[in-house]
């Protein structure tokens, strides 16, 4: 039962669960995070009226259960590719409770504009800076706390292919969905 997640601000979908939508540019690790959040509970289908695939599954963190939707890659809410149009339509039509914007640590300068667009659109956002391990190998350091303060949203660092930071992401998801601290989330 997803008792502790109910009471989130958005509408629940047909699953009766709060919706968490993963967005970001292609090849930033959205699908890896999707698989880590959902495990084996995955449905892949074409978005209605398109050939673009959208994956859906159920995630759980502690007692909080939620629907997870992995969208096609997008660079902007204003994009014109079919993939970007599907992702944008999904955000507007399905009214997610939470948007998790996944970006690559090595390409933050190109990705932060999407973060700002999501915030300006009034969406509830968590920013995931992924592939931190590769960035560190290149000598790049990201001040996640400073970025969080500047944007006014949770920022989580991950190396998703290694499973690093996923527990922190689950905790941040629970906190955003419930509006309560999640100190003791069993993930």
Structure write-up:
- This protein is α/β, with parallel strands linked by helices and 187 residues long.
- It has a single domain, classed as Rossmann fold.
- It has helices at residues 30-38, 82-94, 108-120, 132-137, 144-151, 166-178; strands at 19-23, 42-46, 53-61, 64-70, 98-104, 125-130, 155-157.
- The chain has a 7-stranded mixed beta sheet, with helices on both faces.
- A hairpin with a 6-residue loop joins strand 2 (42-46) and strand 3 (53-61).
- The longest helix has 13 residues, at 82-94.
- It is globular.
- It starts with 18 loop residues before the first strand and ends in a 9-residue tail after the last helix.
- Mean pLDDT is 87; it is low at 7-12.
In short, what is this structure?
With 187 residues, this protein is of the alpha/beta class.
């Amino acid at each position: 039962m997803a008792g502790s997640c109910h009471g989130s601000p958005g509408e629940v979908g047909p699953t009766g669960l709060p919706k968490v939508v993963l967005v970001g540019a292609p090849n930033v690790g959205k699908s890896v995070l999707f698989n880590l959040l959902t495990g084996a509970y995955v449905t892949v289908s074409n978005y209605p009226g398109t050939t673009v695939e959208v994956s859906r599954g159920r995630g759980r963190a502690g007692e909080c259960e939620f629907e997870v939707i992995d969208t096609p890659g997008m660079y902007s809410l204003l994009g014109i590719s079919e993939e970007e149009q599907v992702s944008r339509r999904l955000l507007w039509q399905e009214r997610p409770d939470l948007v998790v914007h996944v970006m690559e640590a090595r390409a933050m300068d190109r990705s932060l504009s999407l973060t700002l667009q999501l915030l300006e659109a009034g969406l509830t956002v968590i920013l995931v800076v992924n592939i931190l391990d590769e960035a560190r190998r290149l000598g790049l350091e990201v001040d996640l706390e400073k970025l969080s303060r500047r944007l006014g949203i949770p920022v989580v660092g991950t190396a998703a292919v290694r499973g690093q930071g996923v527990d922190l992401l689950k905790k941040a998801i629970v906190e955003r969905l419930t509006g309560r601290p999640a100190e003791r989330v069993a993930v």
